[in-house]
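Subject: for your reference before the review

Hello V.,

The reviewers asked for a structural picture of the protein, and I figured it would be easier to keep everything in one thread rather than splitting it across files. Below is the amino acid sequence we used in the manuscript, unchanged from the supplementary table.
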Amino acid sequence: MSPSEPTGIAVFASGTGSNALKIIEHFAGRTDIMVRVIISNNPSAGVLAHAYRNQIPALVITRRLLSDQSWLLRQLEAMRVDRIVLAGFLLLLPEFLVQAFPGKIVNIHPALLPKYGGKGMYGRHVHEAVKSAEETTTGITIHIVNEVYDDGLILFQAETVLDPTDTPESIAQKVHVLEHQWYPSVIDHWIQDKLQDM
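And here is what came back from the structure prediction:
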């Protein structure tokens, strides 16, 4: 990457893409950091519409293509991708991808890790577990991705208070507010190596 070349981000998402949209909006018009591509394993994912409306290339991949090392790395190189951001991507990244982007893949988890992490702990499953444990707080964890689900270095956490009357649905809404508030700016600071300024 040349000094004048912007840092290119690939956003991996499987669903509606509300976090991806916030990331797209955050970096719109920037010359130092830009979203190069949206990658999804779901051909009907709402995130693809966000990519289209914002004139960002989108790539739909199968599980087989995700595990095809030469093909996937070639695609990311062609699109000048330097960092990978997971925004509700439900498949485990292959080890070769984590090794090709060491310390350069980030994920957001809808709970305060190390609680409620690991395989199968995503979306509603997390909020139901938080509710059944009668937690008084929950939140988000933004962390570096390694070869194990939800195990990488924690970059940032934010909390929200829960009421006894909260349902998994209302917990999800509170967590979404934190995700939209913090994820784009934490990504920005992480890329610029300025997390200590947050």
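For the response letter, the relevant points are probably these. Residues 168-191 form the longest helix (24 residues). The chain has two domains: 1-102, 109-141+157-198.

Happy to draft the paragraph if you're swamped.

O.
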